[in-house]
Specification:
By secondary structure, the chain is mainly β. It has two domains: 51 residues, no CATH class; 88 residues, RNA polymerase II/Efflux pump adaptor protein, barrel-sandwich hybrid domain (OB fold (Dihydrolipoamide Acetyltransferase, E2P)). The strands form three sheets. Strands 3-4-11-9-6 form a five-stranded antiparallel sheet, with no helix packed on it. The chain has a four-stranded antiparallel sheet with strand order 8-7-5-10, with no helix packed on it. The longest helix is centred in the N-terminal third of the chain and has 14 residues. It is globular, with a radius of gyration of 18 Å.
């Protein structure tokens, strides 16, 4: 399973309202849990079905950076002119590449498309999240080393 398939599975789990999904193949196992209220789904899936739907792909040796989160205008009245940068995956949010390194961006920093804003660790892979917009960081919405959800707001950006 590649990172794109995992992201699609996360989206599916989020939209379906299922509380937990586990998939196990020969050399790969993934469990996705949500904090939503449990939804009971009784289904029997033949063992060959997951293999038929998702072709088996060897896990990549090096981390692959996913597409950055699509910025969306924040609906809050006092922040309506800001762009919200959201997490493209579930994982752990880091503001720097290691504890002894400086943070990627601070409040007040000017950013441009392609600039690394943070790192999200997911399944032992460190994914750099890059900006898709130009502007100035107005607010960092997540604490360093905190667990984050898919589509969770990470930064507020004032567009340039």
């Amino acid at each position: 399973m590649d990172i794109k398939q995992i992201q699609e599975l996360i989206k599916f789990v989020h939209k379906s309202g299922v509380n937990e999904v586990s998939i196990e193949e020969k050399d790969f196992k993934i469990t996705i849990k949500t904090n939503q209220a449990p939804t009971v789904v009784n289904a029997t899936i033949p063992a060959a079905a997951p293999v038929a739907m998702a072709p088996q792909v060897a896990a990549p040796a090096a981390p692959i950076a996913p597409a950055p989160a699509a910025p969306v205008a924040n609906p809050a009245a006092d922040e309506s002119n800001y762009i919200t940068v959201k997490s493209p995956m579930i994982g752990t949010f880091y503001r720097s590449s290691s504890p002894d390194k400086p943070v990627f961006v601070n409040v007040g920093d000017e950013i441009k498309p392609g600039q690394v804003l943070c790192i999200v660790e997911a399944m032992k892979l460190f994914n750099e999240i890059e900006s898709e917009v130009s502007g100035r960081i107005v607010k960092v919405l997540v604490d360093n080393a905190s667990p984050i959800e898919y589509d969770q707001p990470l930064f507020l950006v004032e567009p340039a």
